[in-house]
Amino acid sequence: MSTERAQQIQTMFGRIVRRYDLLNRLMSLGMDIGWRQAAAIAARPSGGLLLDVGTGTGDLALELYKQGAGYIVGVDFSFEMLSLAQGKSRTKEVMQAAWLLADALRLPFPDDTFDGVTNAFLLRNLVDLPAGLKEMARVLKPGGRLVCLDMTRPPPGPFGALYRLYFNRLLPPLAGAISGDRAAYRYLPNSLAGFPEASALATTLTDIGLAEVSVQRLAGGTVALHTASKPVSA
Asked: I want to staple 224 with a disulfide (CB 3.0 to 4.6 A). Which of 80, 102, 176, 198 is the partner?
């Protein structure tokens, strides 16, 4: 069942690639640009080798480069998304980059390879969240930082109720009409079902052996930026 779900998600992202960036800007009212900038800064990329998992069209990976990464590697399991990311990097003349087709649950890198590992809006799509986080931690160098940016359930109260109305009822048909793929954007609110709330995700990061775990809530508490570090062995 997990393999079937992974294939469905892979196919879905391949279908929506042409308008993916446009929909991100519209759905977030342009705030996603600032969220990715915050994530890139949190990774402390200064001159290092950085891996962006589930890189999609490459926006976070390219922001890492902009913030000072020495070399970026973006991996995704959607060939169509990677093709667009590679095209962007060429347009921006980013030569210190590689774009690889890979599964987040089986990263094709040795242990302790990267100075930093990031992901944006990936975790909700993993068929095995703890396994995916463990893989990212595995390829991270001791002392390196893991940065995770994703949606989270909004807080209680009037704003949370209004956001849920927007996210669950208004956004899917609107985004579906713009993208031409209604099924893909019906998936969006469903992706939060069963996904751990921000504090629970922080606990998971601690449970897999990471340290210095912190959470920053953005966009009124509807987006969470998690950071953690891989302990240095004594």
From this structure: 198
- State the Cα–Cα distance between residues 72 and 139, nearest whole angstrom: 14
Domain annotation covers residue 184 = no
Indicate whether 66 belongs to any domain.
Answer: yes
| Domain contains 176 | no
Q: Check: pTM over 0.85? Answer yes or no.
A: yes
Q: What are phi and psi of 77, to 5 degrees?
A: -100, 5
Q: Is residue 45 part of a domain?
A: yes
Q: Cβ distance 98 to 127 under 8 Å?
A: no
Q: Which domain holds residue 143?
A: 2-152+197-229
Strand 140-151 relative to strand 223-229, pairing: antiparallel
Q: Both tokens of residue 142?
A: 């001791």
Integer CA distances (angstroms), 189 to 85, 175, 195, in order: 25, 12, 11
pLDDT band for position 10 (cuts 50, 70, 90): confident
Residues in the chain: 234
Into how many domains does the chain fold?
1
pLDDT digit string, tens, across residues 114-131 = 999 999 999 999 999 999
Instruction: Starting at the earlier edge strand, list the strands of the sheet with 211-218.
Output: 97-101, 71-76, 49-53, 114-120, 140-151, 223-229, 211-218
Please state the three-class secondary structure of 92-120 as a single string.
CCCCCEEEEECECCECCCCCCCEEEEEEE
Q: Residue 220: which CATH number?
A: 3.40.50.150
